[in-house]
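User: quick one, fold this
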Amino acid sequence: MSGLKKSLGPIHLWGISVGLVISGDYFGWNYGWQTAGFWEFLASVSFVAVFYAVFALSFTELATSIPHAGGPSAYAYHAFGPWGGFLAGFFTLFEFVLAPPAIASALGGYFHFLLPEVSSAWASYAFFLILIGVNLLGVKQTARFELTVTAIAVFGLLFYFAGTIPEFQWENLSKGSNDTANANGFRWQEFFSAIPYAIWFFLAVEGVAMAAEEVKNPKRDIPIGYTAGIGTLILLAFGVLFTTAGAHSIESVGGLDYPLSFVLGDIYGANSWQAKLFTFIGLFGLIASLMGIILGYSRQIYSLAREGFLPKELAILTKKTGIPSYAVLFGGTIGMVSLAVGDTDQLITLAAMGACGMYVISMMSFFKLRWNEKNSNVENSNSISTDYTLVSEKPFTVPFYPYVPFIALVFGSICLIAIATFHKELFFIMTISLFFFSLLFRVTTRRKLGRIPKSILSPEDDEGLLSRGDTDI
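Assistant:
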């Protein structure tokens, strides 16, 4: 039997969790100001922050109890059978495949701000292609590299705060495109419509749970690392919101791919050293997130293809590098097409929609597996889950059960319903995509579906080279 080396501590978990998400502070969230006023958007961010805090704790129990590279797909398979696994896998891919083109779009915007003579569109495609190529070469991120880049990106945000606080004015928080709404009180419609952009502040933080099997002392280190990571992300999100709105008009940054650089450029001058230095630092955070999520979607595609949820050709590994090249290229092709035809705010909304679908199914799986565990003495059940109950000795258990996972399920469902309600056209796109992949799964892959093991601690020839979860992200 082979196992992962337990080398991660709380500081590494902090670096991984913040590093995966840090790009969301640099762009994307500001599209929420196109649909909501400052206070409505602040309420949306607060609501989403609470959701991610409780979801992260619940998701960690799943990841440590069923440490499989398929992640949510494996959890749902154990709980609800093949179709449950397929549905969770679809939503996970929808999130991870559509997030990279959105990040690439912002990378192009920031690079264009740094070098105006370079088109933002061409820069976006160039960064995307380069990082896809890097992944094809087999270059992986490590926790140490992620920690370093994360520290640089956090420093960049602190630098931004220092540059905007002198211009901060409290009265600016009530100004903006929704002056009439502010005069008439809180607008719930704006609160719900801004949810996908609030989610962007925290999207993909759940990926750190995939590193759970490499943690030295899960019961102690995971709560510390996660709490520190979520706490840092919440503080940074609120810091970015308040300093930006207090120092500048929210209308002018609502539709930009490089909002923070624009604000500093407007305060100190577009060619000032403050704006240029911050933009250069910001590129590190965006590149790290883009590279990590490309690696993440390739492993998700590989795992789903290997287990039979996608065509088996996507699970072929390149002999020289051991990389699932077809999986990298498949996700990259979808991402490049999405970058060409979709706006950044649309890509963010679609990625958030897929994420919320995955969150809801994961929490439903959590309760189903807990129920199976409680009734594991029942023999010859018709449910496939009786062979895959959670392990009896869990490395980590969610605190305050069942309240914490129940809050996560309810809040996640509200987020999904809100996004589908206020973005009906994009929800239709996701529904059509789900229908297409359901047919593909039913016709070409479901009959080949094998039994998914619940642990990565399996012989190498059974689990494969990449069945380690996203531990390098």
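User: anything notable?
Assistant: The two ends are 24 Å apart (CA to CA).
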